[in-house]
Amino acid sequence: MAEKQLGLTRSRARIRRTGILVLMGAGAVALWAIFHSWPLGPSLRHLVVIDHGREIQASQVEALIRPDWARGWLGFPMRRVVDRLERMPWVAHASIERVFPDTLVITIDEQQPIVRLRRRGLVNRRGVLFYRGPLPKRFAHLPEIKGPLGSLRALVRTDLAFGRVLRSSGLTIRSLTEDRRGGYRVHLSSGVSLRLGQGRDRARRRLARFLNVVRPALGAKLRSAAYVDLRYVRGFAIGWRRPGSPPLHLRTRIPNG
User: Fold this and answer.
1) How far, in Å, CA of 187 to CA of 233, rounded?
2) 29 and 57 share a domain?
């Protein structure tokens, strides 16, 4: 009886060792195939590109994955290719899925620009300058921001905050400038420039004052204004477009800027 149990134990041990060796061998073959560019699994025959945008061409994606296409359905280095895709300027996020037996599906989410940077690049909602270079005309409608590169994220947050204040007025921001002292100046779609001063929260209150007080008070005359200076604690100044017209200083009942 003891001899039978011993023999059974030895048989099981041999089976385990054999299984381990088979797995190790299969792993070694897989690694060898990957490192030597041998196809692993079925050959790849089809590529599907799902692109949620218009800036990336399918030919660009094909050129990027072509060096690894011959590695086969199982051997295709998905993580490495995703990293390559996400280094493309217009790619915000990319993913790859295998579909048996011979297909890769690549899904691309493109960057969404919300402002232009000094006519030299495009910035997304997170304040990342993802594209540099000449801008196509189709982006001319985006507001332009001007300021230190180190404060891009804060400038984008400011642009979004000011945009929320203007949302119900029918006005939009044409450009937003932050000077070296941290002062804000906004050029509106109506053509008038607003000098708002330092501090985002204070500037936002002054922008609201322009909409609630200055704009109704001036009415049609506002079309002749070159700028409105709202940095005064209890009033504002207007510079007219007509040459030689002195600025107009008005007082309001607003106690704080």
Assistant:
1) 21
2) no
